[in-house]
Amino acid sequence: MFPKFTVKKNTPYGRLGTIFTAHGNISTPSFFFCATKATIKGVDVWTMETLNTPVILANTYHLMLQPGAEVIAKSGSVGTFMGWSGPTYTDSGGYQIFSLGYGCVSQEIKGSPRSGRYLKISENGATFLSYRDGSTWCLTPELSIHVQQALGADCIFTLDECTPYHISYEQTRASMEQSHRWAKRSLTAFLKEDAPYKRSYQGLYGISQGGIYPDLRCQSVDFLNSMPFFGHGIGGSLGKTSAQMREVLDMALENLCPERPIHLLGIGKIQDIFDGIAKGIDTFDCVIPTRLGRHGGALIRPHYWSTAHEAYHSRASINLLKACFKNDHRPIDETCTCPTCQRYTRAYLHHLMKSKEISAGSALTIHNVFFMNSMMEAIRDGIALNSMKDVRLQWVGD
Amino acid sequence: MFPKFTVKKNTPYGRLGTIFTAHGNISTPSFFFCATKATIKGVDVWTMETLNTPVILANTYHLMLQPGAEVIAKSGSVGTFMGWSGPTYTDSGGYQIFSLGYGCVSQEIKGSPRSGRYLKISENGATFLSYRDGSTWCLTPELSIHVQQALGADCIFTLDECTPYHISYEQTRASMEQSHRWAKRSLTAFLKEDAPYKRSYQGLYGISQGGIYPDLRCQSVDFLNSMPFFGHGIGGSLGKTSAQMREVLDMALENLCPERPIHLLGIGKIQDIFDGIAKGIDTFDCVIPTRLGRHGGALIRPHYWSTAHEAYHSRASINLLKACFKNDHRPIDETCTCPTCQRYTRAYLHHLMKSKEISAGSALTIHNVFFMNSMMEAIRDGIALNSMKDVRLQWVGD
Q1: What residues of A are in contact with residue B362 (Cβ under 8 Å)?
Q2: What residue stretches are annotated with the tRNA-guanine(15) transglycosylase-like domain (chains A, B) (predicted)?
Q3: Interchain CB distance below 8 Å, A345 and B38
């Protein structure tokens, strides 16, 4: 029965659909917020609900170390554990392990040293040291599925190897083949009838690989199509720039089975979301909107860019830490109906940031979550009403 | 017109009244939460509202240093600045300056060294260094009134000298007389017609002194009664124990003009509140309920003490950091209707505390605020219905 996916409408600006889960329906295109340790940092779950949040995505890696999969299973699922009654996703835990091992993409691009000593990859899985107590863990495809079944989210992902950006064609191919073998093992574990935490309502996403290489992307798509996954994740390197991302998406989406929902992992910039949707992506997840909020950033729409002082914004957001907001007694956005813009001024948010009050990050995260949810709703309306050019103009500015 | 105070009922268990302010009425007895830097740490102002919070008390000392009184005056008042439409109080700033200088009472009782070098008291006022940038400030009675008029709370306090606990009779007398002279100067400044931030709706509280000495307490009461203050604050040392506090309250309340509201500064323990109300106190403020929440403590009622494991509680609260809560999938209190108890379990709150997630402190603060507001409502009902013995049994346990 669950989960199920239907497409209502296909357009050159994106497609409209619904993912039906045991915990509610997800209208697509949709953006998922990351609750790394089973909480959206600084925002109560009942507030996330009033902001019309569709889905919360939790992290297998963090939760298997603290509080442990068994504690969450005893509470029911990661949804019941965190008091969230709507749909949930979990990732496989791979991304976090490989980030720890290789460093994140930005570190890599900047050439920061990598701490590879914390990570050993073998055919069996990825061996790493717990960030909590230094104990040794080996995350295998089977363990990732076991933990994700214990966590009991509506949709889960296969474990894949997340390679650094700058590896060669040969390394990308070898890694892709390894990820394919892991995907097969994941599916076998997932389908096992007598698994201790088997959940009848769960769907499994496979993840495509192949980096920036067209023939590898093509092979990976063929592989994914041949396996009975519920959904497809787009993984592996998407290149260095937004332009390269669009090229890679063309490769990764060509021939991909159109009956399955397609998730783009870790992408959260406004323009990239519009571009991804136009290519056919259904869902996204990223820490950007919530992390930005905690660091003083508030997402704003392009009609503010021109009127605002140059120093106000960079990349579609204003930084409330800047001194120019000290006596700015307007809300972040006068047209925004989020709780933060209804009650708080820029001057007040600036004061809270300067005072290092946690209420600041919380209020800015609330604005950014509302912003993203409103934008995704506008996009769905835009596709339904064939007005995506206007919607893009209002949210991207070009 | 505002503020005004009326007493509806006097009983041996406390009195019922109403403080009428320009921003709403305060039913007394009432407990005020401290928004030190113009925010209840970790809780949005709209959440404070849904928890039926009567009053928010902000700190003159912190706000005059950051963002500065002028910024807040430009926004309207400290209430409008923080998006709070209900009644507000500010303290004089004295307590914080003297805490910095002398150390807090608990440090003093423990014999920790005091950092008196940061503080110089003269007839003129208290000279101190800003915690923000090390600049030198002199808080005079006139400056405190000026800043509190700029902040524009409904009720404000005179600057008094907050002496350490262990000073002699002679020192206490000298300090009391100094505070009385400051109170006179405060009142003169407050009544000045052409003050730059004069607010017609503000009321001024005088603060009684005299430490633990009956004759000094008596002199201070006579002094306060002779001056046209709107309300009375009980200041100075209240002794070392709850028993001594009750004795000092007897001295400090005897003969105190019964037409004025009486505020007990910095008291927030459950039993002390019941005892204070029985003596005739109308309002309290204290950081205990909110600070306790941020450190993992949840207030619980006595009916839980007997059923709960011994390790669970100390001083009417449970510490969610304790390992015994790891798999405790019940709410903090099954009979509590606060948002936290409706959604979160002890196991989840334990996990959030262990993960150092700020949502933990926020959720526990919400529970504690709701707890205090519910308790004060029960007390008001208890006085109205002559059932205070039962109410005390339900909330204090004896």
Answers
A1: 42, 44, 358, 362
A2: 14-393
A3: no
Q: Which residue of B has its CA nearest to A37?
A: B355
> What are the two backbone dihedrals, phi and then psi, of residue A258, each rounded to the nearest 5 degrees?
-80, -5
Indicate if A285 belongs to the active site. yes
* Chain B CB contacts of A66 below 8 Å: 351, 354-355
Three-state secondary-structure class, residue A25: strand
Judging contacts by C-beta atoms under 8 Å, the chain B residues touching residue A45 are 343-344
Going through A88-157 in order, the beta strands assigned E by DSSP cover 88-90, 119-121, 126-129, 136-139, 155-157
Q: How confident is the model at residue B308 (pLDDT cuts 50, 70, 90)?
A: low
Active-site hit among A91, A160, A272, A282: A91
Contact A95, A123 (CB under 8 A): no
ipTM reported for the complex surpasses 0.90: yes
8-state DSSP, B113:
P
Question: A347 and B82: CB-CB below 8 Å?
Answer: no
**Tokens 């997340």, residue?**
A162
CA B380 to chain centre: 18
Q: How far apart are CA B284 and CA B281, in angstroms?
A: 8
Partner residue opposite A327 with nearest CB, options B47, B71, B363: B71
- Tell me which of A154, A160, A285, A328 is the catalytic residue: A285
Which pLDDT value is given to residue B109?
Answer: 46
Among A127-141, A185-199, A296-310, top mean pLDDT goes to A185-199
In the CATH hierarchy, which top-level class contains the domain B4-285? alpha beta
The residues of chain B that CATH labels 3.20.20.105 are 4-285
- Partner residues linked to B35 by β-bridges: B58
Q: Are B37 and B64 in contact (CB under 8 A)?
A: no
